[in-house]
Design a protein that fits this description.
heterodimer; A: 8 helices; 70% helix; elongated; B: alpha/beta; 3-stranded mixed beta sheet; 8 strands; 48% helix
Amino acid sequence: MSRYSSLSIDELVCRCSESGEDAAWEEFVRRFHRLIAMVVLRSAARLGDSSKETVDDLIQETYLKLCSNKFRVLKNFEQRHPDAFIGYIKVVAANVVRDYFKISRSEKRGLNQATQTPEDFDAVAGEDTVGSPTAVERTVLMRQVEHYLGDCLGGADRDRNARIFWLYYRAGLSAGAIASLPATDLTTKGVESLIFRITKELRERILDAKRATRKNAQNASEGIFPAESF
Amino acid sequence: MHLTDDQIEAMLRTASSESASDRETTETAKIHLKTCARCQSALRSHEEVMEQLALLKSTSPGAPGDCPPDAVWNQLAAKIATVDSERYLDHAARCEHCGTMLREAIADFTDELTPGEVTLIAGLGTSMPEWQGRFAAQLRDSEFPAAVSHRGDRWRSFALAILKPAPLALAAALVLPLLLGIQTRQWKNHADAQLAEASAEILRLQQDNVQQRSRISQLTAQLGTTNVSVSPMERHAEGVAASFVLEPGLTRGAGELKRMKVPHGARFVGITLRFTQPPSGVLSRELLTTDRQPIWSEESRPSVDELRDGNLLLMVPAHLLSAGDYQIVLSWQFNGRSEEVATYAFRVTR
């Protein structure tokens, strides 16, 4: 174990950017390699190329990015909370990967420009594309939920609670992920309780509406109409 | 006795819940459900609504509309707050494209590694200790500044020394103003950095402006337009091969004359005239030989930008300046009168 292994993150970052000790940089690489590799590997896999060569190149690129302009990135970093630097490393690594794929895709598009024309391109519409029955059905459902959701929410946190609801159901984020986001101001348990409460109330309202519709339909078949329909 | 709301909730949660109380509640409810059609129907209705809510989840990324920049989602996923965090999250909550990006960024940043990922990372070339050692040395050497700091150790010793109550109070009284000073200094540094960036941007815009005007000048020339007034900046862009700075005032002897070597092929000579009192109104610039014979003159009302920093740029056609001594007389014209502002003397060599 090196004498740098006991340093806090900001002390280590300071040593790396301001001193020339090999051991400080070795500790930096030792401490953050797994994190950088993890983000690079996942982002690259999602974007279509997680070969060892590409991932290794992008990991190196991330380190170089952190050291560019005489370590300006490291020197200017302000530790606002204990995990800030870890979050910052994740963002740098993810941006390196995103930029790499953006450039490599735009280069590929440039090369293929002359080979593909609109005439020989017959795109298959997905089930979820705009105008498909699934998409229309989903849009109707969303409007319906939006309508009832308005009745379920109230108070000062109305906007935040609506955001949490849609992040959970529409964006598909877990309660833990929502709790970790800035501006949520709730624990995972708090988010779970909130979603549970809203869902329960929303379900009741939707079921009440269904019951009312069913009753009206039943009355209509028996020749009984609500007073306002005359 | 039919199912209560709590029992229905417990039944709906049962698939995902592992709590003992839920399991206990559902066991009782299940027994009742076997024989009660009404409760079966009620539970089914609730399940249907839950199935509908599950359909709200976006399955395709969707097309980007008027969305925030992609980099925002990485920041939010990394728990880095910005002033617009709430606005961005509100957008992501209702946008298929951005909601998907946020979800993916959060998944990429999740700290737990799967066994497969552990194996993959262990197999990378960059995970080898030898590579890491070599690369660490390379990082150190990349752009390493000379100073070696051990600030962390010094601060630790200092902190231990002042932990006793009396020195602690004294230290607090000393350190507080110091911290305030550091904060002020950081603000100043930040402001300086912003100022430097703004200056660089201004310089870039000025260069763009010169290029654009040069292009306009070229196009105008191509159209065969004659008698077009060409500004000093435009001439500058056309290819000035020589430029000089002159201070005002006649010199006492030829030995003190500012010398200009005009290279062959130069079309214009850029002469920057320095002045102490900024002139205003219409300015005339006259190029004279030492026996006051006029060679060239120019009149204009310079803009504030052209007079910035106490300088006025003059572009003189190079072919007029053969070897010899010259004077430039700067005059200010007002109320029909002309008043000399400054005289500049120089010698041209070829």
